[in-house]
Each structure stands twice: as structure tokens, then as C-alpha cells.
Write a structure and sequence with these properties.
By secondary structure, the chain is of the alpha/beta class. It has a domain of 202 residues: Rossmann fold (3-Layer(aba) Sandwich), CATH 3.40.50.720. The chain has 9 helices and 12 strands. The strands form 4 sheets. It has a 6-stranded parallel sheet, sandwiched between helices. It has a two-stranded parallel ribbon with strand order 6-9. The protein has a two-stranded parallel sheet with strand order 7-12. α4 links the parallel β4 and β5. Bound molecules: NADP nicotinamide-adenine-dinucleotide phosphate. NADP nicotinamide-adenine-dinucleotide phosphate binds next to α1 and β4.
Amino acid sequence: MKILVTGCYGQLGNSLRIELENDPEIEAMYTDYDTLDITDRDAVGRCLAENKFDFVVNCAAYTAVDRAETDDLKAAALNTGAVGNLGEAAAKNGTKVIHISTDYVFSGQGCRPYDEKDEPYPQGIYGRTKLEGEGLLSSFCQDAMIIRTAWLYSQFGKNFVKTMMQLADTHDRLTVVCDQIGTPTFAGDLAKAIHTILRHDRWVPGIYHFTDEGVASWYDFSKAIFELAGKNVEVTPVPSSEYPTPAKRPFYSVLSKNKIKKTFGMEIPYWRDSLKRCIELLGEEKNFN
Ligand SMILES: NC(=O)c1ccc[n+]([C@@H]2O[C@H](COP(=O)([O-])OP(=O)(O)OC[C@H]3O[C@@H](n4cnc5c(N)ncnc54)[C@H](OP(=O)(O)O)[C@@H]3O)[C@@H](O)[C@H]2O)c1
């Protein structure tokens, strides 16, 4: 099976490389903006036409949620236009697409886990451009799967876990917001889910939700990080109103995983178990970029 992974220097792209590297059935080409800028429609068209991939897994995105509020053209180029480029080229070449989207497509005003049929209502530029990317992809390509995820962290890149671990070196007290609820999700678990889908004998296009199991606030998440990493940091819970950000954050963004679990027979790890694994990985290797 021949696949293209875009955005391979990111959290999910790196996690997918590790997940797939021992699968002899998968021949993967890994690209990022320096080898395949997915905002370049001609380059994407050429790459898919020349290589005749079975799947494209799009891990590239504009993920700087706050910066997107003032950098909307760039966010739209990557999160919407580029996703259209992939969908258009994939449809021409009979390539299936697995594209990653976000909980930020929802308003975050709900009080039960969002399922795939719930009405999206993004609150900021990042969520809006991601939702428009979903729409453009589906309009070009029938053979596309969109997996919405949330609160990703990993041993790679920048994320909440690594920020907390760095802060623990210089702080013995921190304040963390306690009124935003979601599910911390280890990128390695999402990579594993994508691997399961790639190797599954069923291919069912459409929208899916995937996060780790369980729920937490950012406060709970930070407490678990310090506890599991053995760091002595006192955390004070604060409301979001004490921590203003340019982009509005969803208060509730728990996603229902029933559809992906039923369709592909997946078991999903509990977020604290995966967090423990990630912290162990961070302890073993200091050179993750
Ligand atoms: N991170 C989260 O908490 C989170 C939550 C929900 C959903 N998601 C979604 O999950 C997916 C993976 O997220 P992630 O955290 O792995 O993202 P990430 O770490 O920001 O990785 C994205 C990668 O895409 C690259 N890229 C930027 N412009 C590109 C271009 N024009 N062509 C090709 N590649 C380009 C980025 O390079 P640069 O770093 O140089 O820009 C980066 O290497 C995304 O679709 C994201 O929207 C993430």
C-alpha cells in the first residue's frame, strides 16, 4: 500500500512515521512544506499524479489558534484551500484521503459529547477555516474520511505537556484554567487509529471523532502531568476570564467516539494511561524536536 503523509514534521506526522515504520505492507512518502507545500495546487496535482498513492493522510495544518485571529489569510490558505487541493488531486487519481480536523468546529456550549451529526458552529478563525476545509474536501472528493480530534500532545513539537514540564523547571506554583473541559489525546493513539483504518478491510468515508477516553479540565490535565512526572508544582485553578486569549476557547469540547469505535472495532486508551506513556518517552529521550 502506497501512502503520502503531509505535515510530517508536526506532532501527528512524526507520530504516524513511528507508528508505520515497522509495517512492511506500507510504503510511505513523508513530506512537509519544504518538500510538498500543500498550498501549491500544481505541486500537489503533480505529486499525486506521479505517485498514484492509495491514501493521502493530511497531517499538515495551521494550528496556531491565537495567531490565526490576525493571520486569517494564511490560516485559510492551509486549513481550507490546501485541503481542497488535496481533495481535487485525490479525486482525479482515485486516491483515498484521511484528513484531520478539530473540536474547534463546535461552539463548545454543549453539555454532552459532540457526535458527528451535531451542528458545527466555530467561534474563531482556526475553527472556521478547518470547517471550511472539511466542506471543500467533501465537495471535491467522495472518498474522504475526516477525523476530528482535540487537545493533541506528544513527545514532538510544542504542546501543553511539554510546556508544563518546562515550567516545572522554573516554577513551584502555577495557575491553570479549570472551566474548559475536553480530552487530552496522545498523538501516538491517533496515529495508531489511522494505522488501523489504513489496514482495515472496510473503508467507510465520512466524518469521525477520535480522542482518548475520559474527560478533564486543563487544571486536571496539569495536575496529572506533575503527578505522573514527579514534579512538585502547586497548581491553583482559575476561570478562563482570568486568562484572556485572542481566540475564544470552547468551554466544552468532549467528542463522542462511538462511531469510529463501532465502525473499525477500535479500543481507545484512557487519557491518563497514555499521558503516562508520553511522560516516560519524554524522560527517555531529551532530543525530541
Ligand atoms: N494540536 C492540537 O491540539 C490539535 C487539536 C485538534 C485538532 N488538531 C488537528 O490535528 C492535525 C495535526 O495537528 P498537529 O498538532 O500535529 O499539527 P502541527 O504539529 O502544527 O503540524 C503541522 C505541520 O504542518 C506543517 N505545514 C505548515 N505549512 C505547510 C504547508 N504549506 N505544506 C505542508 N505542510 C505544512 C507545519 O510546519 P510548521 O510547523 O513549520 O508550520 C507542521 O510541521 C491538524 O489537522 C490539526 O488541525 C490538532
